[in-house]
Amino acid sequence: MQLIIGNKNYSSWSMRPWVLLKQFGIPFTERKLRFDFSSPGSAFYAELARVTPAGKVPVLVEDDGLEVWDSLAITEYIADRHPEHPVWPRHARQRARARSLCAEMHAGFMRLRSLCPMNIEAPLQHLGPELFAREEGLRSDLARVGALIEDALRASGGPFLFCAFGAVDAYYAPVAMRMCSYGLPVSDTVAGYVERLAGTAGVREWVADARAEHDFVAEDEPYRQAPAARA
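^ thats the sequence. predicted structure below, dont judge the formating
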């Protein structure tokens, strides 16, 4: 199967299924389309239109032509295709809880998303505390995310949200990247989880690839006018 993604530095939605597949060692090929939002007819949209009318990444394409779009739908498909891996918790009650955490992340936390778009490469640690101090919506979103993480770790005993790494951890990885990039204030429990998540093989590889892109997409850069200087 092939996973079509956007820039690794910016594409939080693409990160989720990519990290999940990598972490479980499920074979796939990657096709990266450079973000270009200049017009509906840009190369990005033209290429994407050939595989999905949704016009968004990620998209999973099977050899027989099956196309699965939306990161949550892709996650469910991976779980169906590979029941040998604990994509979701094995226990039904825990599985329902894990899906609830993913669904809330999928649909919510709009202030966190808009104020702190994923930008792995950018040195924005000075900005997070400033945003946190003045933006009530950001404080509210972070408090809710922190509570979800802490409650899940307390119930499971860790080290990940439902003990072993699974779909929920892949889903929370982009938020963990935001916490790091923006220096957002979080509890020691959340910080420890973020550190463990950042240390997984899948997240490490994604982050390394993102830092190696050396690409600057202005539409995804609300806080910088030019790329950072490089040695």
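The mean pLDDT is 95.
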